[in-house]
Amino acid sequence: MTDWTDGYISDIEYGPGFYTEQTPAHLDVVCLLRGIEPPVAKGERFAYCELGCGVGQTAMVVAATNPESEVWGFDFNPAHIARARTLAKDGALANIRFEEASFEQLAAGEQADLPLFDYITLHGVWSWVSFENRQFIVDFIDRYLKPGGLVYVSYNAQPGWTDAGPMQRLLRMGASLSQGRSDKRVLQALDLANAFSGAGAISIPPEMVEQLKKQKTEDAVAYLSHEYLNEHWSPCYHADVVTDLAGAKLNFVGTANLLENFPALSLKPEQLALIKDMPPTMAETARDYFMTRTFRRDVFIRGARPIPPRKVEQRAAEAELQLVVPPHAITREVSIPLGTATLNAPFYEPALEMLAAGSRSIAELRAAVGAQSNAEPREILGMLIGSRQAKTKLRQPDETQLQSVRRFNQALLANSADLGRDVSPLAAVSIGTAMNVRLLEMLVYEVIAEGTPAQEPAVNRAVRILLDKRGAQLNFEEQPDSEDAYNRMLHDNIAKVLEHGLPMWKAVGAI
Ligand SMILES: C[S@@+](CC[C@H](N)C(=O)[O-])C[C@H]1O[C@@H](n2cnc3c(N)ncnc32)[C@H](O)[C@@H]1O
Predict the structure, then answer these.
(1) What CATH number is attached to the domain comprising 142?
(2) 9 in a structural domain
(3) Residue range of the domain that includes 283
(4) Which terminus in the chain has less CB density within 10 A, N or C?
């Protein structure tokens, strides 16, 4: 048998992961912030494809929250595709297809029935596969992306990874000395790196070894193997990715890390002055020298259509914002690439208060705040979504859509519980993405979705039964020292989920 893996780690599965940056809802915001038309107008159906989809969580959330659209997920690892298909079937998703196919097969057109796509995304793939495979990806995009279509590609970025190069090579060489599965081999290689560091190998700093040794869970070790043991691991400069993707007529739009699209939040004045007259690709690459970004999430488009600046503000003003944090977690202190910024009080204080009462368009917020409103719509959109406090509300779902998303969420949460996860995404059809929920929230969601009345004693009883059935345990922030203390904590925490979580799930169309 020929080796189908092409140097990619395939003897252990990659763990599930959901990435909101890959959703059309988020990618359309990137386009608007950068003044470029998104692939389809708001509310229109689209065709979406994820390459190297792993076990498919992100693609499934896209399908579950956009039931009228068509979603495809491809991966060459049969275990990944089998897992993805099982969950899609359990969650009754009718608008997604997972196919076992390599980039080479896809580029050659071997997959029948493929539509042309509006969105093609790939996360955690590009800088881990061979140059030949990158070319297959470009060929596939060239063949299957519609004019005006969008590509999201994430990758390990240079120069941020330069110092880690010797570590990667040592881990890969070290792992090749032993036999067995990649997770075992990467841990043995880490011991070797530790020994090298102790014996004075200056390019293997002890802090880096310590950092990697903290990765102990099954998922974390799988991540280490997939991150460090691939034969073709090679972090890229942004400029080289731009050159490669030009082969499919793609132009760079911006980054899916929303706040990085605001230059003044990303670079100091003297840094901005140095890059201001550079051609755009060079300037964007130069930013990575100052920001030491180790991971980029780039958005490209095939045929960028600029939106006039006045219209950008107009469209941003029309966007309806939905808070996705509970009222007590709302903050005007925002992490920005340069450190922390404080959103101005005259606008954001009343605006956030209004949003806590329900979704509002940016135009409504500005009109209500009135004369003190010194924030422009585009900025408001970027700040509130970029700080992860809000999402754009895309639709008011009908009962059929809610039923479908509930069914999918029940399957997703049961699957996360089976895998021993204490965090899971929860698909939300109003906002076209998912929110993360922790173990107790997962349990409360499941019992309510199964019909338990949303009151503390009933939910408490049902949660205990579900915990027993699964043989699972809850971990509170503080360890209870008696049964009474445990009962009190469980009661209080369930009450909190019912007070804050449940109304939020309803507001975002997750239940
Ligand atoms: C690091 S994982 C990322 C998975 C998923 N996108 C995520 O972020 O959770 C990379 C994925 O690319 C797939 N892959 C690697 N080389 C491939 C190839 N030549 N053709 C198709 N899939 C490939 C792997 O099987 C793996 O599932």
Answers:
(1) 3.40.50.150
(2) no
(3) 20-159+235-302
(4) N
Please give the number of the atom of ligand 1 that sits closest to the Cα of 75.
22
Mutate to test the pocket of ligand 1, among 2, 58, 76 (most ligand atoms within 8 A of CB): 76
Task: Take atom 14 of ligand 1 and give the residue whose Cα is closest.
Answer: 52
The CB of 53 under 6 Å from ligand 1? The reply is yes
The residue assigned the tokens 């340069």 is 338
Residue that is written with structure tokens 């969008």 in the block: 150
To test ligand 1's pocket by mutation, which of 8, 156, 223 has the most ligand atoms within 8 angstroms of CB? Answer: 8
Give which of 94, 37, 41, 38 is closest to 68, Cα–Cα. 94
Q: Which long-range contacts (CB under 8 A, 24 or more apart) does 434-439 make?
A: 434/18, 434/20, 434/61, 434/65, 435/324, 435/504, 435/505, 435/508, 435/510, 436/18, 437/413, 437/501, 439/472, 439/474, 439/475
Q: Let me know whether 247 and 362 are in one domain.
A: no
Over the stretch 73-91, which tens digit does the pLDDT of each residue have?
A: 999 999 999 999 999 999 9
pLDDT in tens, 227-282: 899 889 999 999 999 999 999 999 999 999 999 999 999 999 999 999 999 999 99
Same domain (yes/no): 418, 487 = yes
Same domain flag for 133 and 94: yes
Closest ligand 1 atom to 105 CA: 20
